[in-house]
Structures are given as C-alpha cells and as structure tokens.
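Single Protein Entry

Contents — chain, fold
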Amino acid sequence: MFTAINITPPVRYIPEFDPTGEYAGIKAAVFDGMPRNGRKTAVFAYIGIPEQADAGHRVPGIVLMHGGGGHAFVQWVKMWRDRGYAAIAIDNTGYFPMERDAADDRWSFGIPASLNDGTYTNAPDNDGMSSSAGRVEDMWMYHAVSQAILAGNVLRSLPEVDGGKVGITGISWGGVITSIAIGEDNRFAFAVPVYGSGYLGEALSWMKDNFASPATRALWSAEDKFDKVGMPVLWQCWNDDSCFSVNSVSKSYLDTVKNNPRTRICMRNEMMHSHVHGWLPPESMLFADSVVCGGEQLTCLAKQPSGRDISLPINNYDGASVTALLYYINEKMTYSIHEKYGYSATFMDQQWQTAPLEVSGGTVSGRVPDGAAGYYIELRAAKDGREYVTTSVFTEL
C-alpha cells in the first residue's frame, strides 16, 4: 500500500510564509503527497536545520506529526532544532497557514490558490477512521501515514542530515500515525508515539469507537505489524488520559521491546493532554539522544512486574539517585464520561494511589497493597541535569 517509501518528493520553499522573530531561519515549504482522484496533493511543512549543520557535519533528524485540531507547529521544530536535530513538522490534515506567522486559529483547509497551479487537489482531513471501507486514496490515515514516510524521505535527502539517524514522533492522533508508520517503514532510527499507540480497539476511552469497525481494524491496527518494528521506541502517555488508556500503551510496549531492548515506556502522572503537554516532557529528547547521539540509555526496569511482591533489578543503574514509586488503583480500571481536571470527557473512574518503593543496590523492592486491582512502577532518574521518568507496564491483579 505504501509506495511512498520509494518516493522522495520535490520540495518547494515558500519564503513568503517563512516564520519571523525567534523562529527566523525555519523555512516554510510544500511537498507533493500521494495522488487522489488522479491529481496530486500538497503537504505544508516547516523545516528547521541547525546553524552548525552542513554536508561535512551532518545532524540527526526528526519528523513531527501533530494530533487532532493541530497543524504544523513551528514551536516544535524550534525545540528540536535547538537540540541539534533537523526537524520537519507537517500538516497531516490538509491545512495551510493563512498568513506568515499564522496563529492557531489562522489555518484553513485546502491548498490555497496561490500555491495551486491547477494540478492539485486537497488531501483528506481527519475523518476519525470513517473512510476505512472506502477507496484507499480517500482514506485520511493512508495519506497521513504516507505523508510521515515522505517527510522522512525529505529529511534524508538533505545534505545536512544523516539519513541513518532520522526518527519520528507524534502526539495524540499523531501518535497513532507514528505507531502505524513504524510498522510500514523500518528506516526510522527511533520513534516516540505520545499518547497514541496500538491496540486501540481495546482502549477503555472513547478512542476504541474509532477502531470498532472490521474495516478499520483490518487496515489500521498498528499492533498487526509490531513484529516488523525494529527501531527503539519510547511509548509515552498520560496515566489518566481522556483519549487513550494505559492498557493499550502497555501492550504496545510489550510487543515492541521484544525486537529492541532499548525500547522504553513512560506513563506520566498529571501530564494532561495537548500538543504542548505532549512535547514538553524531557523523555522524548533524552531518548532520541540515547539512540542517535551517543547518549546514555535511559534507566528502566530490567523486567516487568507480576504479582504483589516486587523485587526487580534496574537496567542502566549507575548508583546515581534513582527513586521508585508505586501507582495503584483499588478497583478494576474502567472509564466513563464525567468531569475531571476541570472538563468533562471519558476519564478513568478510579483515582491513582501511590506508595513508596525501596531502591537499593540497583533493585526496586516493595509490596503492592492487598486491596489493589492494578498497578505500575515509576522510576525517576536524572540525565544532563534533567529529571526523567520511565515506568513498568500496567499490571492487573
């Protein structure tokens, strides 16, 4: 299905949309997406290259995939460019900025006339997987995954970029796109799906409804191709997300860590759900550095817990300060529509409880309370002066 793997699309830079101010130096561009109805589609992108990068000093790269209600975020590009990565943020829903330095509410669907010579048609908008029984070329997810693959090819074609060190990350729906893309294109050096994952048909949140139809499950169940995912993956999520649930993320981790022991999982407490909340935690950049920049691997549990008695070794434990905390719930995890965190959505009905665990000699130990119905273990460590979190999977009792 994904012939995009073999295509490096031409890139048209559009300087009249280049960002200004603190984002100066990042370029606005358009590249060709996959055809639809016999005509080309166009994808808007921001591309940022670190100033020190050139053909003699190539840098790693990263593809940035936004989620629902988002667009190509220049802020996100700047964050990674400042970290030393070439970054490309694309709009995966067919939107374009209405002006230079467009605010979030100044993006509109459809390729503008000024960029259309008459040979282009619009790529599909996010349709919540409702087009899965239709023609492939009309499916939003087909175009979105293809665009992620094409964006990776664009980065690899740049002389300043080390083509073997191009990763991908996505937030929310972008995390879903990322989870599917890495099963189709194993050239990505690393991946960081944030919130989104595989096993969404088993989600406890409303997201399961988008994967309820047999056609959607047949085409877009990311887990069906996790056996082909060879790169290290950081599965990052909020432990009380209104859109996704930790059971899906946990199963995604367990599938992919089999192929690469550098794979990690991070379930953050009080993370919240938004693009900004998705890109701010330090784990994504620290993880990327550990894969493509020679950085140390993130501390993690050497094996997953089971039962109530905990005695687990820690990988990459160097005697530095590492703390451990038990998160548990006293009832089977369920979701329903109710108010939490100041708004109403399909939240987890239970409240996370915590209990300290002991870390001694590179081992985490303790006991899960007798009344607990499920739990996970959080490790906190520090790298480059930044505290980060890794966790176990969610374990039901």
